[in-house]
Amino acid sequence: MNQHPIVTSEELTKIIYLIHQQYGYDFSNYARASLERRVVRCMQQAGLQTTYDLKYSLTNDKSFFDWFLQSLTVNVTEMFRDPTFYRDLREKVLPKLASYPVIKIWHAGCATGEEVFSMAILLAEAGLLERSKLYATDLNPANLDQARQGIIPMQQMKAYTDNYMQSGGKNAFSSYYTARYEHVIIRKEYRSNIVLAQHNLAVDQVFNEFQLICCRNVLIYFDRHLQNRVFQLFHDSLSPLGYLAIGTKESIQTADVRTQFETISLPTRIYRRKQ
Q1: What CA dihedral angle connects 43, 199, 93 and 193, to 10 degrees?
Q2: CATH of domain 9-72
Q3: Is the pLDDT of residue 180 over 80?
Q4: What is the pLDDT of residues 102-137, one digit of tens each?
Q5: Fold assignment, 83-149+189-273
Q6: Residue extents of the structural domains in the chain
Q7: Could you please report the per-residue DSSP string of 93-129?
Q8: Contact 165, 173 (CB under 8 A)
Q9: Which residue numbers delimit the CheR-type methyltransferase domain (predicted)?
Q10: Which residue in 44, 109, 177, 236 has its CB near the most CB atoms, within 10 A?
Q11: Is the dihedral of CA 75, 233, 228, 10 positive or negative?
């Protein structure tokens, strides 16, 4: 009977160092307990019993590392996730953004794109999509490749339709995609204003100025130090009076920049940068 793989804190540090040295991805300030669980899960899926075997595979097999990165960084995502959040965007944020001649929005940690597609639909229904540019970034290039295709499994669409309607959706949700066998494709007009690019929140810098930044359910994987760095990055990336949205299980209260934001909606974690 296979034993449960064990990854000690020292071994985890060595794995993090190896990945950083060989591939340039820095996981040193990710929440350790969560990272350890995901490494163990990857080892189980790959049938590896020891961290020596894991390090050997990471060192000598680039395709294994690509799979490992995908497994390690994948985020749970869905269209119109937390419908009350999207309802608050419709009612409290988009009317303010409408005053800008060009609206720039950053989805940081966009995973496979479901939430940025949701934003595009929201903007379209508000008559704002044509003058909006949505920047969707992720650490994992495989996520970005999938997002570029705009393909979503058909089996997800009933739940996504329910989310959309609860968020205050104005049209038939099926009008936003084309069905193809077991999948759907988000219509091109709702993807054409999306720019997909690789960006690492742990090390990369400001690359534009935005009126809204969404980074939902990503910060929970970071330790306090990295969370603080990312909040500073978001503050510096927002225009004055720009909006920041984070996950419902995340908090800005421990960040050094917390006094630079006012709360727009605490239940849905929407904040606004002060002047």
Answers
A1: -110
A2: 1.10.155
A3: yes
A4: 999 999 999 999 999 999 999 999 999 999 999 999
A5: Rossmann fold (3.40.50)
A6: 9-72, 83-149+189-273
A7: IHHHHTTSSSEEEEEES-TTSHHHHHHHHHHHHTT-G
A8: yes
A9: 1-274
A10: 109
A11: positive
